[in-house]
Amino acid sequence: MTTDPHTAEASRLAAIWSDVLDTPVSVDSDYFELGGDSLAAEEIAERAHSDLGIEPEMADFYALSTPREMAEALGRLRDEPTT
Question: What DSSP state is assigned to residue 80?
Fold first, then answer.
């Protein structure tokens, strides 16, 4: 059985969101339904970069509004070989 390598990252990202937003967060929680705003997004982005090596931008919180979506998309970008 293969495991999606980004599942663990989604859980870690959800924990960051939970800490910053001070509310329980699952990997499928929607950022804006949780009350997320631009100030929290900035703090989450900084922590995601330092803890996970992914760099979400503000637009990513709109397009990838759950920890699962964000971890999968940004993890793939990070993991792509550069030429």
Answer: S
Q: Give the CA distances from residue 26 to residues 10, 14, 16, 34, 68, in Å, rounded to whole numbers and listed in that order.
A: 9, 6, 11, 11, 9
Q: Which of 8, 5, 12 is nearest to 50 (CA)?
A: 12
Task: Compute the Cα dihedral for 83, 4, 34, 32 and give only its sign.
Answer: positive
Q: How far apart are CA 56 and CA 71, in angstroms?
A: 9
- How many angstroms separate the CA atoms of 59 and 63, rounded? 6
Check residue 13 and give left, alpha or beta (phi > 0: left; psi -120 to 50: alpha). alpha
Three-state DSSP class for residue 48: helix
- pLDDT tens for 28-68 read 999 999 999 999 999 999 999 999 888 899 999 999 999 99
